[in-house]
TrEMBL record:
Keyword check for Lipoprotein: no
Protein name in UniProt: Coenzyme A biosynthesis bifunctional protein CoaBC
Residue intervals of the Flavoprotein domain: 7-180
Pathway the protein acts in: Cofactor biosynthesis; coenzyme A biosynthesis; CoA from (R)-pantothenate: step 3/5; Cofactor biosynthesis; coenzyme A biosynthesis; CoA from (R)-pantothenate: step 2/5
Residues reported in the UniProt entry to bind CTP: 283, 293, 327, 341, 345
Superkingdom of source: Bacteria
Necessary cofactors: Mg(2+); FMN
Name of the gene this protein is made from: coaBC
Keywords (A to Z) from UniProt: Decarboxylase, Flavoprotein, FMN, Ligase, Lyase, Magnesium, Metal-binding, Multifunctional enzyme
Domain DNA/pantothenate metabolism flavoprotein C-terminal: 189-399
Region (Phosphopantothenoylcysteine decarboxylase): 1-193
Family to which this protein belongs: In the C-terminal section; belongs to the PPC synthetase family. In the N-terminal section; belongs to the HFCD (homo-oligomeric flavin containing Cys decarboxylase) superfamily.
Length: 403
């Protein structure tokens, strides 16, 4: 999964010959998982059609302040469009458009949208060699960068004029790669490693039956995806679950038993900066596992159980500089029990959820949690989708890492 997955990208296309490449750029952005809306100047239509771009982006293409072809003129809101975007890419960016961007000239819909955008702006210049190296163009580049805009430098090659030199717009693949790397480099967990456990464990009784629980793994998977989207390299150790995850920064390790999860977490714990143990690990396992299916009998059946290894406590005992977070699912005296677990297992924080709260706990797409840190500060959150809960948890962790 690309870091662009789920991002809202506004692509601005200006009137240069390189505009024909914009169709390929839209396809690559869509393939990366982004939602794309296109704004183009009237002159850009000479090189690529709005129909092509709307078909590829599956969105309306904007080029003017009104849609005159509809019954009654409909105003296109450049402010809403600029605020919609998580990032904006102007590619190709001609010398004319770039110069207007420096002065705040808003004589077309693209420029008005650019001035309304609050997101990071990337621009990929495309012009002939002498234009690219002209002092006025260099001044334009410097001014735009001083505004916080990010330049994707032109490449070296044959130009439309027949000259060979710098000024050729970066290839669509290069633009996508540049944006991905730039986003990653600025993420708060860039260079960090995060360990997350998720799901249940299954402890075998015989080849057919097991002791388990109702954990779906959704909370842990949401945490893993959030950590990766914050730039971290993630080790996700998952018990049995139907869930899957695809992200270039996530390494998924599947296990079944508590012992397997214990061994997998200890293999990587010394390599990580943050560990969040959200898995619902079985506290007990059968003392003996039958090698054949146990036949049903009329008499009462007894299974001797022995404790499993306490993964969280063992990591708390061995931790050095890791920020260690546990989960506590409680049914009574929730806060007191969570605080006892926080202290006894040497944690930096614990995430409490209660089975008493409707919509929280196992098997739900939502959760309601309280984040408690080692200073016993309680931060309760309302019921939310687990993806949003993951964001809340990492916000609290980042606040403490940055203190």
């Amino acid at each position: 999964m690309s870091i662009l997955s789920g991002k809202k990208v506004l692509l601005g296309i200006t009137g240069g010959i390189a505009a024909y490449k914009s169709a390929f750029l839209v396809r690559l952005l869509i393939k990366a998982g982004a939602s794309v809306k296109v704004v183009m100047t009237e002159s850009a239509k000479d090189f690529v059609t709005p129909l092509t771009l709307s078909t590829l982006s599956k969105n309306k293409v904007y080029s003017s302040f009104t849609d005159e072809e509809q019954e009654g003129e409909v105003w296109n809101n450049h402010v809403d469009l600029g605020l919609w975007a998580d990032l904006m890419i102007v590619a190709p960016a001609t010398a004319n458009t770039l110069s207007k961007m420096t002065t705040g000239t808003a004589d077309n819909f693209l420029l008005a949208t650019y001035l309304s955008a609050k997101c990071p702006i990337y621009f990929a210049p495309a012009m002939d060699l002498d234009m690219y190296v002209h002092p006025s163009t260099k001044n334009t580049f410097d001014t735009l960068k001083s505004f916080g805009n990010i330049m994707i430098s032109a490449g070296f090659g044959e130009l439309a004029s027949g000259l060979v030199g710098q000024g050729r717009m970066a290839e669509p693949e290069e633009i996508v790669s540049f944006v991905e790397k730039d986003i990653l480099s600025k993420l708060p967990l860039k260079g960090k490693r995060v360990l997350i456990t998720a799901g249940p464990t299954y402890e075998a009784i015989d080849p057919v039956r097991f002791i388990g629980n109702h954990s779906s793994g959704r909370m842990g998977y949401a945490l893993a995806e959030k950590a990766a989207n914050l730039g971290a390299e993630v080790f996700l150790i998952s018990g049995p679950t139907h869930l899957d995850i695809s992200h270039s920064l996530i390494k998924l390790v599947r296990v079944t038993t508590a012992e397997e999860m214990y061994n997998a977490t200890h293999q990587v714990f010394n390599q990580v900066d943050i560990a969040i143990l959200s898995a619902a690990v079985a506290d007990y396992k059968p003392a003996e596992v039958a090698d054949q299916k146990i036949k049903k009998k009329t008499a009462t059946m007894h299974i001797d159980l022995v404790p499993t290894q306490d993964i969280l406590a063992s990591l708390g005992k061995n931790k050095k500089n890791q920020f260690l977070v546990g989960f506590a699912l409680e049914t009574n005296n929730e806060i007191d029990n969570a605080k006892k677990k926080l202290a006894s297992k040497n944690l930096d924080a614990i995430v409490l959820n209660s089975l008493k709260d409707k919509g929280a706990g196992f098997g739900n797409t939502t959760n309601k949690v309280t984040f408690i840190d080692k200073n016993l500060n309680n931060i309760p959150f309302p019921l939310k989708p687990k993806t949003e809960v993951a964001t809340d948890i990492f916000n609290e962790i980042l606040n403490r890492l940055n203190d």
